[in-house]
Amino acid sequence: MLSTVFGCLAVFLTPGLCCQLKEYSTTDGQCCPMCHEGSVVRRDCTRQTGTRCIPCVNGTFMNEPNGLNKCNPCTSCDQGNGLFAKQGCTAATDTVCHVVNGYFCKAFTDESGCSSAEKHTQCGPGHRIKAPGTSRTDTVCESCPSGYFSLDGVNCTVWTLCSKTQPKIKEGSRIRDVVCGTASRQQYSYIAVILPLLTLVIKG
Hints:
alpha+beta; Tumor Necrosis Factor Receptor, subunit A, domain 2; two-stranded antiparallel sheet
């Protein structure tokens, strides 16, 4: 019996310990029924009346039973940072944000939304896209292999093979193609002399 008395005294001296599930403790140590989702406390309960609740107004929400007197502000999806409202805010649910094309989510919310997004990485010259970016992952880039180059950072192209009449004058790299020269004047002169001779031989 004493333990029960002391237990009650402990409960009485520590406001809130008496309160049951879906009850909240007031400043004077009373236990009142919580307000439902979508509303907050307007007036605490008394011995004669229950808790007075008011609904959350536009731009605010409350997504759980509570003993609070203020609703939470709705999240704003920042389009400038790659977010848009996939689901609008209601009295009982917060806004659900999602990423726009060209961005991926860096931080997810409990409601399967996104709270922070970042623009997909642009692969630079000398690289190609190994894996395109998605709404959940960034772009994966990789270097072009030897013998290939990339100017735009999208795909790698094989180096040009110079012919015997167009000797290589500049070696290729990961960011530029091989540069081939043109046939020399001497070669053109040689061809110009040989062709008339061949014509005479054929006619003869």
